[in-house]
Amino acid sequence: MAGKPSVVLAGVALLLALSFSPASAQRSGGLLKLQFFDSPATMSIHEESTIAGQGPMMGVFNNLVMYDQHVPQSGLRSIVPDLASEWAWDEAGTALTFKLRSGVKWHDGKPFTARDVKCTWDLLQGKGVNDEQLRVNPRKTWYGNLEQVVVKADDEVTFHLRRPQPAFLALLAAGFSPVYPCHVSPAEMRRRPIGTGPFKFVEFKPNEIIRVARNPDYWKKGRPYLDGIEYKIIKNNSTGALAFVAGDVDMTSPYFFQVPMLKDIKEQAPKATCQLMASNVQRNVIINREAIPFNNPELRRAVALTVDRQAFIDTLTQGKGSIGGALLPPPEGIWGMPADFMQTLPGYHPDVAKNRAEARQIMEKAGYGPNNRLKLKVSTRNIPPYRDPAVILLDHLKHIYIDAELDVLDTTQWFPKVRRHDYTIGLNLTGNGIDDPDQAFYENYACGSESNYDGYCNPKIDALFARQSMEADQDKRRKLVWDIEQQLAEDVARPVLYHNRSGTCWYPYVKGYTPMINSIYNGLRMEDVWLDK
Q: How far, CA to CA in Å, does 230 sit from each of 485, 528, 532?
């Protein structure tokens, strides 16, 4: 059954530094103003792949369960009730039953029931609901093991799985897993979402602002404290930082600013709280496996070998980033590979000159050289976290006879382009929705996933995904995960450049906000945030 587990996470000192203000000090009222880094395509969390769309809308919704908003390292042990008051597995570990709260209403006044839960996961499985489907479904593969959702009563629902999957509950707790209403169409959810959460959607003016307002009928009494939140869209880093320093906003875009900008802000606004944390967002190279000449696996290997990971970290994070694979490395990450194991993988050996010599031999064997250089475009999204590493990648490619130019795209163009594999090489960011192998592997590497941007497909690896997913023993599962990481590196499946650490700043009067350190998508409910002014 559900409860509020006590979570002690040794080795992560940041947990001791972050504290939640005592309940007695909290006060209601006020408008929180954030500088926000980008303008999303829609307001529909289930159709978005970026925090630009998911972050501002997390407070509009509730999940069945959620990660405790004041435990920075989210995991199975930090899951707490949300719309579900309790839950239980059957003995076989293939049926998960939730008891739902009564008296909860959607923002339009209609009652929330178990039928809404079924409708939501029918949509996520690709089934039609009221003759409509999601336009895009980035996380459909999260639920490949879900057989069906059965409504047992208005306040009880059961998820039936095809095989045991101990981490299934972790997927349901993600910020990407809100419950949608049956009676509102997917098209309307893109424009004017209706939720049960602490905040009601007010408006979205593309490239200007996103507004949400306090839900006075929120089922969680006394929440939220804020009257509303304004997400002011300021795409230029320097302009956004200046807006914060000038006091035009109370908080910077969560998890967005890099080390140099954080230092500048702290110098100009010394009273501000600025925290740098791991984000479970990694920079990676996507290579179109169907595009000539990269349909040759050896040329993909050459690209992986020319990468100098430490150069990315030193240049872009002033040494604060981490080298890793598909899973976030420790200590913030629960499943990442240790450094000594990583260095045995292709392209991870610290002798970059040796790696590049091998890469040039591969390119020369394919007919390329100083007098016959390969010319191509490196596509990326037109915001600094993408553009900046893409520029460095261009330089690294020159070492192996590739002359590349940058092809930058607006957010609304970027995701459709990579989903249809309309590129040659891309510089991509992958933000894992939760720190768990089921999410990372199935969403980004499984055959047929919408988010498998480079078209990687290895049925043997898909079978290993299922094997690790069924393993209940965490140590045994971790070993299986590392074996998979090794194979992904050998197959040059989305080579990971580095795992970023990024930061958020807020003024001391902003209380009750706790940044997450192993996923940027799970800590923006904002119902506990309040203003001490």
A: 40, 16, 17
Please report the domains of the chain, with CATH numbers, ordered by start residue. Answer: 28-232+507-531 (3.40.190.10), 279-501 (3.10.105.10)
Q: DSSP secondary structure string, 276-295?
A: EEEEEEEEEEEE-TTSTTTT
Residue type, 301: R
Cβ–Cβ < 8 Å for 507, 11: no
- Give the model's pLDDT for residue 6: 32
- d(Cα 124, Cα 55) in Å, to the nearest integer? 19
- Cβ neighbors of 18 (< 8 A, separation 6 or more) are 70, 72, 275, 514, 515
Which residues contact residue 413 at a Cβ distance below 8 angstroms, ignoring those fewer than 6 apart?
none
Q: Is the pLDDT of residue 13 over 70?
A: no
Backbone angles phi, psi at 493, to 5 degrees: -95, 100
Distance, CA of 182 to CA of 424 (rounded, Å): 40
Instruction: Give how far Cα 416 sits from Cα of 104, 419, 447, Å.
Output: 36, 5, 18
Distance CA 380, CA 441 (A): 22
How do residues 318-355 score in pLDDT, each as one tens digit?
999 999 999 999 999 999 999 999 999 988 999 999 99
Per the DSSP assignment, residues forming a β-bridge with 97 are: 88, 158
> Does the global pTM surpass 0.70?
yes
Alpha carbons 431 and 437: distance in angstroms, whole number: 13
Question: Locate tokens 């409708």: which residue?
Answer: 119
Residues 309 and 327: beta-carbon distance below 8 Å: no
